[in-house]
Amino acid sequence: MIDHALHPVLERIADALERLAPESGASPDFDAAEAFVWQARSQTLAPVAAVNRVDFRLLKGIDRQADQLLANTRQFARGLGANNALLWGARGTGKSSLVKAVHAEAAKDAPDGLKLVEIHREDIPTLPALLDILRSCGRRAILFCDDLSFDRDDTSYKSLKAVLEGGVEGRPANVIFYATSNRRHLMPRDMIENERNTAIHPGEAVEEKVFLSDRFGLWLGFHNMDQDTYFAIVEGYAAHFGLDFRDIRAQAVEWSVTRGARSGRVAWQFIQDLAGRQGKIL
Question: What does the pLDDT average to over 189-204?
């Protein structure tokens, strides 16, 4: 028998454990916002008051990728066939900007609305819990993971199988998965080659990780841009925000040289600097 004097102590311990435990069973208010961020620790969806996005019309030099992803997203929003998408390629070329811009465009015509739910790379192991919430809510949602990649001995990629193709339940019909990555196969090439060279069965050693990218039905590649495209992006931003165009190309070139690259990100950074020098608030 437990000494009655211990009862208050045990009750306090139980209360403390309940406070530390994540809340469960609370359905998110999907009417509170158009986008949400998955909080893995509490297993809740936090509404985003204002999505950090670029207008779809301002995205230059990625017309083919934009058209394909928008068409795919509109099909999904209407309940038609659509594929999970992997946007891969060079840094700063507009991958994550395109996902957010496409969501805004497709949501305009979505019959029952379309939500954007972001999950951080390190929270991939909690995907099953998030899928249960999204499946039960019935609302159509783009599940978005930015900068997705896996390193050696990282087994969290297995959680993606339920979203893409594998698992008994598979991906919920009301959820589609979009990911961006700098790596086409989601893991470094040197690690792929190293595992092939050291494994007893080289093909089997890397097949599970490498072929994960094959489970995305839509692959969109993003590559470094030429100077004309870079100018088009800069001038598009300048016109949109009403900035002074005088000597803008020479300034844009100088800015890109100091950054050692031409990309949509570099163009946006230049525009922010230019707007500040002209006393404009973006």
Answer: 50
